[in-house]
Amino acid sequence: MAYTRFEQSEEAQREELIRKIEASVRGMSIRELEALCYELSTKNYISERM
User: Fold this and answer.
1) CA-closest candidate to residue 11, choices 26, 46, 3, 24
2) Where are the domains of the chain?
3) CA count, 13 A, side-chain hemisphere, 12
4) What is the Cβ-side half-sphere exposure of residue 44, based on CA atoms within 13 angstroms?
5) What pLDDT does 4 receive?
6) Residue 44: which region, alpha, beta or left (left: phi > 0; alpha: psi -120 to 50)?
7) 14: Cβ–Cβ under 8 A, 6 or more apart, which residues?
8) Are 38 and 44 in contact (CB under 8 A)?
9) What is the per-residue DSSP string for 1-50?
């Protein structure tokens, strides 16, 4: 059963967002992934040391 984001717990919202992001990332080309990685690293969301 689908709930609106207002009816979901914070953890359920988090899990749903992670699933959506993972599905999107899987469909990206290497160039798109490189661009995303660069963008996230410049905003300090991820570390280049990973």
Assistant:
1) 3
2) 10-42
3) 9
4) 0
5) 60
6) left
7) none
8) no
9) ----TTTS-HHHHHHHHHHHHHHHHHT--HHHHHHHHHHHHHTTSS-TT-
The answer to whether the pTM exceeds 0.90 is no
Please determine, for residue 44, whether its predicted confidence score (pLDDT) is greater than 70.
yes
Identity of the amino acid at 48: E
Q: Measure CA of the first residue to CA of the last residue in the chain; give whole Å.
A: 37
* Distance (Å, whole) CA 19 – CA 27: 13
Residue 28 tokens, joined: 């990206």
- Length of the chain equals 50
User: In the numeric block, which tokens belong to residue 30?
Assistant: 């290497």
Tokens describing residue 27: 């469909």
